[in-house]
TrEMBL record:
Protein name listed in UniProt: MYO1B protein
Region (Actin-binding), start-end ranges: 184-206
Source organism of the structure: Irena cyanogastra
One CC-aspect GO term: microvillus
GO annotation, biological process: actin filament organization; actin filament-based movement; endocytosis
Myosin motor domain segment(s): 1-307
Amino acid sequence: QDNSFEQFIINYCNEKLQQIFIELTLKEEQEEYIREGIEWTHIEYFNNAIICDLIENNQTGILAMLDEECLRPGTVTDDTFLEKLNQVCATHQHFESRMSKCSRFLNDTSLPHSCFRIQHYAGKVMYQVEGFVDKNNDLLYRDLSQAMWKASHSLIKALFPEGNPAKINLKRPPTAGSQFKASVATLMKNLQTKNPNYIRCIKPNDKKAAHIFNEALVCHQIRYLGLLENVRVRRAGYAFRQPYEPCLERYKMLCKQTWPHWRGPARAGVEVLFNELGIPEEEFSFGRSKIFIRNPRTLFKLEDLRKQRLEDLATLIAKIYRGWKCRTRFLLMKKCQIVIASWYRRYA
């Protein structure tokens, strides 16, 4: 119920993960249709980049304001930090406090003076500013690190590498917020170089019990996980897409004109294949480099036809092999019979 600095940076990490989820699913999904020249009506979705900017902007972000308060001379308290936020973030539509312009007209008496509220993508969260400044300061002083590095125990020495005199740095240690922000940036850079698959876990109830389904809880999780926008984009778009070459290679056996070899462009072969199978035109679209199939049942139909065709081909191969084997055995027996008969007639 009482959210402090720890929950704030955790929610910041969740915002960044949601942002990369949006970039790699919703945004990339729709941009691919545009790149491929597919007729497409853009679907609006909430982009939480504005919330990430509110937290991590180098000049006006909440973490930047917190670092500025921790590093500046003079009397610094959590209240002075909140005052600075009220000045810098007063007009931001996702920031609220008792003194900011956003809530001045709301008459929100449920928001205490020592708190601020951020409207995250998953909903509004209220944070207590008490302890923000102290928790953001790195209280591991340089002389303590140097003393621990001189310990004879190898594990303790390894835990404090910054105490090594050869690596001594006279700069002030970075704040906890700065370290966490850099760590999140490294994580995002790493994720963007990969091809991630998302698994969304939904709790059916808060009791961790079987056979209990809380509909309100499930709906809330679906909303804040961004699944509604994802489903809207997926339903309006195409369930399956594949480059022409592997598509033709996989399904060419279903058409006499493309089997066993197609002597032309892969796209033309796919067009011939789909026309031969009689697939309705509204079920697929031809992109610049890919075939797009709208409904999963069309893909299932192709797979069923391919499975049946493979069985037919296997039966054909087995039939031809058995025929060849029988003919070979018959010819060998016939040859042996002629030899035996000729020798028999010679001595008869």
